[in-house]
Write a structure and sequence with these properties.
heterodimer; A: alpha+beta; Sulfite Reductase Hemoprotein, domain 1; Sulfite Reductase Hemoprotein, domain 2; 4 domains; six-stranded mixed beta sheet; five-stranded antiparallel beta sheet; globular; B: alpha/beta; 5 helices; about 25% helix; binds protoporphyrin IX containing FE; binds iron/sulfur cluster
């Protein structure tokens, strides 16, 4: 994985020192709470319902075991022994004190981590495919691109006070696991007919209260121009994005109001001026960056390991629980003899995405032992060991199982995405964690979950859509009806290549009725599905009426 | 483009400012409000609308005239006049509005402007560093700022990841060069 050099180390340390100074000036009364606000936001520190919340960047989701131990340490020292992994490859702590924040950030810096630009109207943490580098459908590893964008966008002096937040995602595989169509800028790494490496550039996607699918601004951009082109987009956005109404301030609204062609014309005109500037990258810059991500030294299974593989196969046949876990929570790896393991943070009853400090330490140790000391966090709020030898799976499973980390529900209806909602978030209209719990309780049979198959439920506690409800096969949106928590359901959203925005089912339903309604939606699906059809495909084929009839009957 | 905000009232002239990272106590520039008459002597700044209309008289004036832009102004309207403008004043009506940063950047990099760029309005210590990077050379700090302390705001970072209108370079070309 990427290793900081002296430039990177110096920068994060200087950043901590700067923030320490700002907090001190605030505590001395020289900087008002109001003046401190945008400064603390740009260091990841929010003010929430009960306390401050600190959001730490996990660039493109990648962590070393050492870093994960540090996250556990931070949960113990500054928080209440847990943290929340978010859909944006961040971790959030819900209870740190402002006065401790500089020390917390210093601890992070010691393991090459930071919270820079994790909130505020600036360029945020770049996200990507959780299977980067190991996926069977990968064309190019997106992580070098992400790291280069991270560096270019960090403390960019011109783009620190944008009209609104700005999110970039990169994908390098056939299947889009990074939701590039729902980002301010989405990049797809690809090759053109001349075998040149470049990027398809998408712009103006987003969730929030006005969900929009991104549009292609450039079909093929030679990768040397990645930074200059992003800079041109940001400059046009910085100048012309709406600043009067924060609900119309995202780049998606600018692209919509100018039209993609006019927006492209303006961006290209700017880009012409800067494309051959110092921002121009060279092939060697990518190669050097790629060398950080070359992957571990995989070993071909030895005779000994072959026995292990046989044992895994045997146990799969014999032990239902192991088989369930293997089938649901492990994924094909590009290298023979290895598998990708997904650790579910969706243990029924626990808030989706939460992990305790002990679990984090445990996961870090297991990653050290079984996955070359690296792990990843995913936008489904789970954790991944990318490089597990096939022969080790049984042993690893037993160890995960002993810590309630082997719940075999990845990809099922219970693998929900869920924002913090009313329990923590000051913008929330309704709870989302309790709804997740209600649904978990309703769907407690694994056989039933497996029969239902892939069904993505995504839930947000208000229109800001942090839980991606627009992109859920079933979306759940918390609304406030005269002080009562209610839930609006949507059907048919997707964040993948077939991206679509969910359609409203009908009027919002009462809190107690959510799991019932999900049950009904599922029953319509089960009655109507053709053989191997997913929930989403059945819905697309038969339309929304049968579902409406069932739920509102 | 509309020319709004603080032009209607006379902007306060402050006694102290930072020029090229030095504290300067004598501030000789007056920022004239929209309706205010141009005095015969003394350095003044005028808003963009007035400049566009009265350009020729203003250029002929014996004492220096700067042009003042708010965030919503179109900086490109100045590009052919820059040789006649000794200083561009960027009025930061609200410090969370980042457009003035791009104005400064364009003045320097696109229009190769070499005169002074002065920032006024909501100018705080914690923005000085970035303002300097995009090309601002003079800073009239908002009231109640500790000027001496503010000077330290320039030195907080020794590493720059990206080029702007300063000596910053693309970190990747820097690494390439240091091989
Ligand atoms: C608890 C504190 C949080 C606050 C105050 C907050 C606030 C917001 C707001 C205001 C928006 C709407 C932005 C817009 O449309 O202009 C938003 C969007 C979003 N947030 Fe959060 N959020 C929080 C937590 C989270 C968490 C925990 C996650 C991940 C699980 C998350 C991920 C996202 C995503 C994915 C979007 C929508 C994508 C987009 O930007 O279009 N946020 N957030
Ligand atoms: S969707 Fe709304 S309730 Fe949920 S975290 Fe985002 S802002 Fe808070």
């Amino acid at each position: 994985m990427y290793q900081y050099d002296h430039f990177d180390h110096t920068l994060v340390q200087e950043r901590v020192a700067e923030f320490r100074g700002q907090v001190e000036r605030h505590l001395n009364g020289e900087l008002s709470a109001e003046q401190l606000m945008p400064l603390r936001l740009r260091n990841g520190l929010y003010m929430q319902r009960h306390a401050h919340m600190l959001r730490v960047a996990i660039p493109y989701g990648l962590l070393s075991s050492k870093q994960m131990h540090m996250l556990a340490h931070i949960a113990r020292k500054y928080d209440r022994d847990y943290g929340h992994f978010t859909t944006r490859q961040n971790i959030q702590y819900n209870w740190p004190e402002l006065k401790d924040a500089p020390d917390l950030l210093k601890d992070l810096a010691s393991v090459e981590m930071h919270a820079i630009q994790t909130s505020g109207n600036c360029i945020r943490n770049t996200t990507t495919d959780q299977y980067a580098g190991v996926a069977v459908d990968e064309l190019q590893d997106p992580r070098p691109y992400c790291e280069m964008i991270r560096q270019w966008s960090t403390l960019h002096p011109e783009f620190y006070w944008l009209p609104r937040k700005f999110k970039v995602a990169v994908i390098g595989a056939k299947n889009d696991r990074a939701a590039v169509l729902f980002h301010d800028i989405g990049l797809r790494v690809l090759k053109n007919e001349q075998d040149q490496l470049g990027l398809q550039v998408l712009v103006g996607g987003g969730m929030g209260r006005t969900p929009v699918i991104g549009k292609v601004i450039r079909e093929f951009l030679p990768r040397e121009h990645m930074l200059s082109y992003c800079e041109a987009i940001l400059r046009i956005y910085n100048l012309y994005g709406n600043r009067d109404n924060k609900y119309r301030a995202r780049i998606k609204i600018l692209v919509k109001s100018l039209g993609i062609d006019e927006f492209r014309r303006q961006v290209d005109a700017e880009w012409e001026q800067i494309k051959d500037s110092d921002l121009l990258l060279k092939g060697e810059d990518f190669e050097r960056m790629q060398s950080f991500f070359s992957g571990p030294d995989y070993v071909a299974p030895s005779a000994n390991a072959k026995n292990g593989i046989d044992r895994v196969a045997k146990w799969r046949a014999l032990d239902t629980r192991f088989r369930q876990w293997y089938d649901n929570n492990t994924v094909e790896h590009k290298v023979d003899g290895y598998r990708i393991v997904v650790i579910s943070l969706k243990e029924p009853g626990a808030p989706p995405g939460d992990a305790t400090a002990d679990q984090m330490d445990h996961i870090a140790d297991l990653a050290e032992q079984y996955s070359f000391g690296e792990l990843r966090v995913t936008h489904d709020q789970n954790i991944i060991f990318a490089d597990v030898a096939q022969a080790d799976l049984l042993e690893l499973w037993k160890k995960l199982d002993s810590q309630a980390l082997a719940t075999p529900n990845v990809g099922t209806l219970n693998d929900m995405i869920c924002c913090p909602g009313l329990d923590f978030c000051s913008l929330a209209n309704a709870g989302s964690i309790p709804i997740a719990k209600q649904i978990n309780e309703r769907f407690d049979s694994l056989d039933e979950l497996y029969d239902i198959g892939e069904l993505k439920i995504k839930m947000s506690g208000c229109v800001n859509a942090c839980g991606h409800h627009h992109a859920g096969h079933i979306g759940i949106l918390g609304v406030d009806k005269k002080g009562v928590e209610c839930y609006q359901l949507t059907l048919g959203g997707s964040a993948e290549d077939d991206a679509s925005i969910g359609e409203r089912l009908g009027k919002a339903i009462a809190k107690e009725e959510v799991a019932d309604a999900i049950d009904k939606l599922v029953s319509v699906y089960l009655q109507n599905r053709n053989k191997d059809e997913r929930f989403l495909d059945t819905y697309r084929r038969i339309g929304i009426e049968p579902y409406q009839e069932k739920v509102y009957a | 483009m509309p020319n709004n905000a603080s032009n209607s009232e006379c902007l306060k002239v402050q006694g102290a400012l930072i020029v090229d990272r030095q504290l300067v106590v004598e501030n000789s520039w007056r920022h004239l409000a929209t309706e205010e008459e141009v005095p015969e002597t003394g350095s003044v700044s005028v808003d963009l609308a007035r400049w566009l209309i009265e350009k020729s008289q203003l250029i002929a004036r014996q004492a220096p005239v700067a042009v003042r832009l708010v965030a919503s102004d179109d900086v490109s309207l100045l590009q052919d006049d820059l040789d006649d403008i000794p200083m561009v004043v960027l009025d930061m009506v609200s410090y969370v509005d980042g457009r003035s940063y791009t104005h400064a950047y364009w003045l320097r990099e696109r229009y190769a402007y070499s005169g002074d760029i002065r920032i006024i309005g909501e100018v705080y210590r914690d923005q000085l560093n970035f303002l300097e990077r995009v090309g601002v050379t003079q800073f009239e700090l908002a009231a109640d700022q500790d000027l001496q302390d503010a000077l330290q705001g320039f030195d907080e970072f020794s590493v720059l990841y990206q080029p702007s209108a300063d000596e910053g370079r693309n970190i990747f070309s820097r690494r390439r060069a240091s091989d």
